[in-house]
Amino acid sequence: MTASRPLSPGEEERLVAAAKAVRTKASAPYSRFHVGAALLAEDGSIHTGCNVESASYGLTVCAERTAVFKAVSEGVRKFRAVAVVTGADSPTPPCGACRQVLWDQCGEIEVLMSTVSGAQERRTLSSLYPHPFEFGGPK
Ligand SMILES: [Zn+2]
To answer: Of 6, 55, 67, 124, which is most buried with the most CB atoms under 10 A?
Structure first.
């Protein structure tokens, strides 16, 4: 599967800026690792999410999944890219759980990983997650 049309420099800038902005909303009192994610839909709309941690650690939801669930619950189904911004020293890829959910809902998209200081890395989702689980059960 190939990614949809490439992002323009303007789209990329807007998407990373949205992820950087929503990162400031993260609720991460335990890890203090604040993450922002922004999904670019086919229609040009941007859907953001931040990580929300729980005192019961396993209930924590990452920024990427927050963005996906928000967008899907608003009826958005087609996506082109996701941007993820962290305060780490180098760009941080989505965790395994988020890679699966991104694949489930977005298929092949571009993944733009950035730090707040401006380091960037770009990958396709399939290069980060080459063998996703796909449900083949009853329809
Ligand atoms: Zn995750």
So the answer is: 67
